[in-house]
Amino acid sequence: MISYTNPVIPGFHPDPSICRAGNDYFLVNSSFEFFPGIPLFHSRDLIHWEQIGHVLTRRSQAELVDEKASKGIWAPTIRVHGGRFYVSATNMSHGGNFYVYTDDIYGEWSDPIWVKQGGIDPSLFFDDDGQVYFSSTYDLPGSQAIGQSRIDIRTGELLTETRIIWYGSGGKYPEGPHMYKKDGWYYLLAAEGGTEYGHMVTMARSRSPWGRFESCPYNPILTHRDTMLDQFQAVGHGDLVDTQDGDWWIVFHGIQTTQYMLHHLGRETMISPVEWAEEGWPVVNGGNIITPQMSAVRLPSVPDTAGSDKMRSTGNVQEQLKWNYIKNPELSSYYFEKDQNKLYLRGTDITLNDVGSPTFIGKRQEHFDIHVDVEMGCVFREKDGYAGLTVYHTNEHHYDFGLISHEGKTVLMLRKHVGDMETKEIFDLPGQSGRCLLGIDSDKTEYRFLAGTDKEHMKCFGRGRTQLLSTECMVMTFTGCYIGLFAEKGAEADFFLHG
Question: Is there a contact between 206 and 229 (Cβ–Cβ < 8 Å)?
Fold first, then answer.
C-alpha cells in the first residue's frame, strides 16, 4: 500500500477538475476575483502537484472590473481532446459561460469562446462519434437541474436547444456536472447539497448522453455531511480520472475547521482512489470517510515521476507563480527589481476596503501555522498613505499591519477591518532608520503581528482572531485567506523579499 496526505493542494484551491494526457495529469481550480485566473497544476503521480501557470493571464480572458467578493471566475473544467486542451468556466459578472483552449499546456490560452447557455459550472464532453456536449446548471423556478446542449467546438454555437438531463438525487443545488463514458454507459457526476456543510458528490448513468439518467442507489458516493467536526467538512465538487494503469481516482475539495464550524483557509484540493463495484457504480475510498492520512494500492506507474525538463521548475519559479492580484491590476503601480530582490508598490486611491483593484500582491495561506516576514521602507506622498503586510480574505474582512506617517514621523499601524467595524492602533517604529522588519505568525485561532529591527529583535504588536476572517463570519464567500503586500493612498513602498 502507498500512503499519502490530504489535502494534496492546500489552501484556497476549490472546485478542482482534472484530466490526463498520456502519463501527465493536469488540474485547475476556481479563482473568483483574483488574477491571473484559474491556477494550473501538473503531476505525474496524482499526489505531488506543482503549479505550472494560470489559464487566464490577460484581461481579455478575465474581465474582473467591479467584481464583488467571490464573483469572477467559477468552477473550471479541464479536458483534452485530439491533443488540444480546453478549460470551460463561468465569468459571473462579465459574459457568463465560456471556454478557452491551447495546443501547448505550458503556453498561452485563447481568448474566450462564449456559449449562449445559462447557468454555471460548465463542462465539455467529447463523445466517441465526434459530438461535443456542453453541460451546466439549469435554473428552474425555486430549484435547479443539470442542462445540456450539443455545440460546435470551433465556435461555441449551440447545435441543439438546452435540455434538462437530470434533476439530481434530491439534494439542493445540483451543479458541477461532469460526464464520462465507461463500458457503454454515460456517467454523470454532480455536486449537490450546496457548497457548505451538506456538500456531497452524486452520480447517475444512462445508455445515452441525453438520458434518461438513473440515480446511483448508493448516492451520495462521497459526503461528510454527517461526520464529526474534527474531520474534513464540506467535501464535494468532484471530478474523476482514469490512470494509464486502468485505476480510477477522484479529486474534490473540502475544508478544515478551526473551531466549531469555522474555516478561513478556503476549500482545499483532496484526492481519493475509486473502485468500481460489480454492478458498475463507483466506490470512493472503499466507502470510508476521507482522512488526512490516506492509502492506495498503487500510484500511476511512470518511470520518471519528475517528468521532462519542461515540467520541472525551481522553487523560485514555483513561488512566483503563486502570486495573485485582486481583480485586474494597474501594473504601473508594481515594479520588481530582480537583482536586488525588491518589490516596489505605489498606492492609489483604491484601498483594501474598496470594491476595486487596490495595489496588492499576495499568496494563498496554505497552512494554519505560518511565519512570514518582509523588510520594508516607505515614502508617503499623501497624508493617508499606508503600506505593509495584510491577511486578506475580502474587502470587508482583512487585518493589515504596516507603516504610516503620523505627526511628522513614520510609525506602525495595525488596522483590523471586519464588516462595518474598523479599529486602528498606532505604535512607535522600532529603531531610528525609518525601515522595519514586519512579520506575521499564525496558528488555528490567532494571527500575531510582529515588527523589529531584525529577526532577533521581533516583538508582537497586536493579535487578531482567525474567527473573524472565517467564511462563516461574513456574507457567504467561496475564497480563503491570502497573505499579501499592499500600498494605499500615495504610499510608495519598497519590500525586500527574503529567499
Answer: no
* Distance from C-alpha of 310 to C-alpha of 302, rounded to nearest angstrom: 16
Say if residue 220 is preceded by a cis peptide, omega within 30 of 0.
Answer: yes
- C-alpha cell of 39? 491556477
Provide the number of structural domains found in the chain. 2
- Amino acid, res. 17: S
152 found inside a domain: yes
pTM of the model: 0.96
Query: Which residue shows C-alpha cell 480520472?
Result: 241
Cell numbers standing for residue 425:
492602533
Mean per-residue pLDDT for 147-163? 98
Could you tell me how far CA 375 lies from the centroid of its own chain? Answer: 28
Residues 286 and 383 occupy one common structural domain: no
Distance CA 47, CA 287 (A): 20
Does residue 33 carry a catalytic annotation?
no
In order of 100, 364, 437, 438, 450, the CA distances from 380 in angstroms are 42, 28, 18, 18, 22
**Cβ atoms within 10 Å of 231's Cβ, excluding its own:** 15
Number of helices and strands in the chain (H, E): 1, 38
Q: How far is CA 283 from the centre of its chain?
A: 26
Grid coordinates representing 439 are 512579520
Q: State whether 306 and 327 are in the same domain.
A: no
The percentage of residues in the chain with a pLDDT greater than 90, rounded to a whole number, is 91
**Rounded (5°) CA angle 381-384-385:** 50
Beta-bridge partner residues of 51 = 41
Q: Does residue 112 sit in the same domain as residue 244?
A: yes
What is each CA distance from 31 to 14, 76, 193, 271, 323, in whole angstroms?
A: 8, 9, 21, 19, 12
Give CA–CA dist 332/398, Å, rounded: 24
Question: Cell 484551491 sits at which residue?
Answer: 13
Question: What span, in angstroms and rounded, lies between the C-alpha atoms of 75 and 53?
Answer: 17
Determine which one of 33, 121, 175, 400 is catalytic. Answer: 175
Could you tell me how far CA 413 lies from the centroid of its own chain?
A: 30
**Could you tell me which residues are beta bridge partners of residue 414?**
401, 425
83 φ/ψ angles, rounded to the nearest 5 degrees: 80, -5
Q: Which three cell numbers stand for residue 148?
A: 445540456
86-107 tens-digit pLDDT: 999 999 999 999 999 999 999 9
Residue 15 appears among annotated catalytic residues: yes
CATH of the domain at 8: 2.115.10.20
Rounded distance between C-alpha atoms, residue 31 and residue 39, angstroms: 7
pLDDT in tens, 368-380: 999 999 999 999 9
Cα 246 to chain centroid distance, Å, stands at 29
Q: By CB neighbour count within 10 A (0-12 exposed, 13-18 middle, 19+ buried), where does 152 fall? A: exposed
Same domain? For 280 and 333 the reply is no
Three-state secondary-structure class, residue 35 = strand
